[in-house]
Design brief:
The chain is 42% helix and 12% strand. It is of the alpha/beta class and 387 residues long. The strands form 2 sheets. The protein has an 8-stranded parallel barrel with strand order 3-4-5-6-7-8-9-10, surrounded by 4 helices. Strand 7 (184-189), helix 6 and strand 8 form a beta-alpha-beta unit. Helix 3 (130-146) packs parallel to helix 5, helix 5 (166-177) runs parallel beside helix 6 and helix 12 runs antiparallel to helix 14.
Length: 387
Amino acid sequence: MATLTLPTPDRRLESYTTRAPRTWPTKPANPFNRTAIAAAHVVADPLADCDPWLDAPMDWDATMAYRRHLWRLGFGVAEAMDTAQRGMGLDWKTSLELIRRSIEAAKSEGGAVVFSGAGTDHLPPGQYAVDAIIGAYEEQIGAIERFGGRVILMASRALAASARSPDDYSRVYDRILRQLREPAIIHWLGDMFDPALTGYWGHKDLDAATEVALDVIARNAAKVEGVKISLLDKDREIAMRRRLPKGIKMYSGDDFNFAELIAGDEHGYSDALLGILDAIAPAASAALAALARGSRNEFHDMLAPTVPLSRHIFKAPTRFYKTGIVFMAYLNGHQQHFVMIGGQESARSLLHLSELFRLADAAGLLIDPDHAARRMSAVLRSHGVDA
């Protein structure tokens, strides 16, 4: 246990003592009965000669080491997604190199699961003809498939800016899906994660948007492995998963209510494709193994303390959640610094990071509390707080 000084919302400083560490298994005790894919973050290179707000220099060794950590805990990896700051500092050129390295590394881990994000983010901001958007998707999908990768079909800012009706979405998705070598995961990312995606599927009304998405999925069911919706609305996710064609998975993207959605109900359950799995991987791995053994109580006991942490990390403005994900990796020694591409380590306040530290400790997710406290103290001192 360690004691340090943390700030409070009323501008006081209070003494905080960490709890005794919790020991988590380093690999699952048994296979999962849910598909669990972690959207993994990337590690920046803090010693690169660059313009940090413009460039994306990568520490490839640390970035790939974190993926091996996730694979060994039983997770698949969703590569080059928004958790990795895709489209928010991470450009397509660097994303493709990340995808290539991840696919190659997965082979050395016995064929670990990797799905890679394909989108249109190499197009400059603006409006485009539908055929140009289709061509942009085809370019990225072709590059991923040449490496032997499987695709997550990411939501397109260009399509959101250019579509004149739901029919334009249908045209794009119908065309792209029928060309795929293997079924893809469709990702519907809500505007709380990316305001540029407001009105996706041609409707601001989410009920109407859901109907368009379901129609696309039904027409192309043979080329859809699953759908991930990131709308932070558990009732909408449940309603949509009950209407999916047989054999198509609902991948929960709800970082607020993931535990109950994965556990499911008498009508079914959600699998998981979540950014929060990056931060809570040891607890989530143990919990999923318990669920597969039929121990639902143990599953909920392990995950319940992680839910407040996740809700804090993903609180509005939700698009800044990546700062908390990287901070957790820094506290737990998976990287030697708290520096992010795009300078996004500054996207959350010291108060936010301090509360994250408390919640991570309460969840048993500070693997070495003394080490984490020393790192937290270094961040506090950089903000003028004598820890």
